Each structure stands twice: as structure tokens, then as C-alpha cells.
Amino acid sequence: MFIIKNRKIFFTLSGLLVLASLLAVIFWGLNLSIDFAGGTILEIEYQETRPTSDDLRLELSEVDLGNLLIQSSGDKGFILRFRDISVQEKEMIDELLSIDGQYSFTESRFSSIGPSIGRELARRGLVAIILVSLLIILFIAFVFRQVSQPISSWKYGLIAVLTLAHDIIIPVGIFSILGFFIGKEIDALFLTALLAILGLSVNDTIVIFDRIRENLRLRTKHDFEETVGLSLEQSFSRSINTSLTTLVVLLSLYFLGGATTRDFALVMSIGIVLGTYSSLFLAAPLLVAWEASSHRK
Predict the structure, then answer these.
(1) I want to staple 112 with a disulfide (CB 3.0 to 4.6 A). Which of 7, 37, 40, 234 is the partner?
(2) Largest alpha-carbon pair distance within the chain?
(3) What percentage of the chain's residues is helix, strand, coil (to nearest 5)?
(4) Residues 189-207: tens digit of each pLDDT
(5) If you write DSSP's letter for every residue of 149-194 in order, what string do you get?
């Protein structure tokens, strides 16, 4: 009952985090990778020694590459980001990177995406999130159709989606801050992580809602607030233990895995913490708050 009795504190905390995240996105925007903004990413590693980034920039100035970014990678490598290029331009760049044959290198990664493809990918990602949210409302409303008192079944679905929005907005806000200060990018794996967070979070929420439904059916408590509080107590350990197990795996992937999956593991770790928090401290208390407001009317 502690969570239910102090629900206004948790509502306020979540509201502040969501507001801060939205303000971060509004003022700082999102640092979109080439997956969405379009462009080229080239990762190379020199065989023995590597030139300085200033030498590379000077050599590559012979080709108009737009906003050229050069980032060191390990002891001998570089990651270069620039505009979308043609095959002929790629051949010229390969010659320039050797600096008149003084340095030999191998190409670890090359990806070039046109801006129209990037915009289409971003649009499809947004559509996917919206469709998933609508399907979640319909699914929960159908599954809980026999629970009409004291909260209608569609309200369970709407509250689940509200908590999912909470679980998505905050990671986006965090990456907006990280993108502004340290250059973290929003890429296709980030979108994949958001969709995975949707699935994991709603699963946890449905388990708690199902416990509430069962206790309502058994009439374990006469008061709805007490029923929800009891359901949370019965689900608390299960939710925390499941999330901690998943979090250990994700943190291992973040600290021990490769650079390509590090941001994915970070987003998922944030999402797991938020999903568990929202399922326990937001979803069920919102049911109580909605039921209480309907009585006051």
C-alpha cells in the first residue's frame, strides 16, 4: 500500500522527468545518425602507424564531403562521417586516405544512405511505434473485457500506453542530452531498442493488471485501492527479480560487448529500469487515481 498511498510523489517525479526530456528534445534536438539523416560512415584501420586527423582532413579537402567528421577509433583507426557519395567519389577518397601511398589501411565498415531513405526509415519507425501502441490498447481491452467494474477494460489499455509513452520519452530525452554533450547518435538500433522496451514494459504491466483482475474476481478486498495495493505486493518481487536478471545481461553486454551494440545495451538498460518503475509505480496507481476521480464526479 506504500506505493498507492504515495502515488502523487511518483506521479510528480515521472512528470518532471518527462518534461525535462521533452525540453531537451525541443532545445537540443536529436543527433540523428546516417540511418535517419542520410550520409556515409567509413571506418578504417591503418596497418602500422596512422596519420593525424588534421592530415586526413587536409587531404580530403580536395573532395567536397559536406560536414566531415573524423573520430579516432582505437590506436590505429578512424571513423569518418560525411555526405552521401558516388562510386567515383569513394574511389577518390580511398586514394586520398593513403596520403600519396605513405599509409596502408583496411576498410572495416562502409555504409552510405541517401537522405530520402533515411527519412523513410524514420517515418516507418514512428508509424511502427504508433501501431504497436494502438494494438496494445485493443489487446488489453479485449483481454480485460470481463473486468468492467470499477474500471472499464479500455482504461487498462489506455493507462498501459501512457506508461509506455513515459518509458520511451525519457530515453529519447537522455540521448538528446548525450547527443548534445558527447555526440551520441540516434540510429536504427536505437529504434529497435525502443520497440523492445515497448514489449518488455507492457508485459510487466499486463502481469500486474492480471493480478488485479484476479483479485477483483476473488473479491479479496472490498475496496479497489486495497485490491490494487495487495496486487502490487504480490507482484513486486517477481517484477524486480525479472528486471534485475535482464539488467545484468544488458550491463554485461554494455561493458564487455563491442562498440556497435554498446548504445543498444545502454538504451535497453534505461528502458528496463523505467519499464519496471512505470509498471509498479505508475500503471497501477493511475488505475486507483482514475477510479477515485470517477467517484468524485
Answers:
(1) 40
(2) 83
(3) 70, 10, 20
(4) 898 899 899 888 888 888 8
(5) SSS-HHHHHHHHHHHHHHHHHHHHHHHHHHHHHH---B-HHHHHHH
In terms of pLDDT, which residue wins out, 36 or 95? Answer: 95
CA 45 to chain centre: 30
What distance in Å separates the CA atoms of residue 120 and residue 42, rounded to the nearest whole number?
22
Q: Which three cell numbers stand for residue 229?
A: 495495493
Query: Grid coordinates representing 191?
Result: 529504434
Neighbours of 248 (CB within 10 A): 11
Residue type, position 166, single letter: H
Highest-confidence segment of 146-160, 220-234, 241-255: 241-255
d(CA 28, CA 256) in angstroms, rounded, equals: 30
What cell was used for 147?
473486468
Contacts 24+ apart (CB under 8 A), 170-174: 170/17, 170/18, 170/21, 170/270, 170/274, 171/197, 171/267, 171/270, 171/271, 171/274, 172/21, 172/25, 172/30, 173/17, 173/18, 173/20, 173/21, 173/22, 173/23, 173/24, 173/25, 174/21, 174/24, 174/270
Number of helices and strands in the chain (H, E): 11, 4
**In contact, 227 and 149? CB cutoff 8 Å:** no
DSSP secondary structure, 119-134, as one string? HHHHHHHHHHHHHHHH
Rounded Cα distance, 222 and 239, in Å: 25
Domains along the chain with CATH numbers: 2-34+116-296 (1.20.1640.10), 39-113 (3.30.70.3400)
Q: Which residue has the cell 509506455?
A: 164
Helix (H) or strand (E) holding 110: strand 105-113
Residue 200: CB partners within 8 Å, gap ≥ 6? Answer: 246, 271, 272, 275
Residue 204 contacts by C-beta under 8 Å, 6 or more apart in sequence?
Answer: 239, 242, 243, 275, 276, 279
Residue 183: which region, alpha, beta or left (left: phi > 0; alpha: psi -120 to 50)?
left
